[in-house]
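fyi for ur records
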Amino acid sequence: MNYRHFSLVAVTLFLGVNAGAQSASKETMANLNAAHLGEANAQHRYVVFARTADAEGYAQVAKLFRAASAAEATHAFTHLGAILDLGGKVENSALDTVAPGTTLANLKQVVVGESYERDTMYPNYLKLAKAENAPEAVRSFGFAMAVEKQHARLFTEAYAQLGKNPPATYFVCPSCGNTTVGAPARGKCPICQNPTTRYVNVP
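which gave:
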């Protein structure tokens, strides 16, 4: 399996979703829609930022952007699955126009965004979904929050080390987006419990 097949794998994960099996409040459905659109935009934005990093000679940072983009695509599909399973529909799928800055500026922007999702957005979304006993939303928000913690750390390190970024390879779980530096140990993903043999190496 290679990176080109990553989105197809993520789509396939949701072919068995039974729409309308659960229910959730309008607020949680709105949160799922906001998260879905946000992750889709992040996926798109990171692809653009990766091209900028490559053009500026920061190949290692470009690899990190591509890995994070793959993870964000998985989150978008997970949120989509939750929306459908809860009997809802996608309210907005329009992607923002991306105007990249320098790689340094892009990294600074991303650290702020990932930190907000880690510290504020997803914790708030998850708290409400748990209170409503909406398991599909809890699963979706929980996966994303766990991975955004990783991304905030990885991007913070990349920002601090820019120009001296050590070589690394990145692997991404197609079920939850878990992002590892180097190949994961054989066993189960610590976030979604699926086999780590399914992880995808993002070049």
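The two ends are 12 Å apart (CA to CA). thats all i got for now
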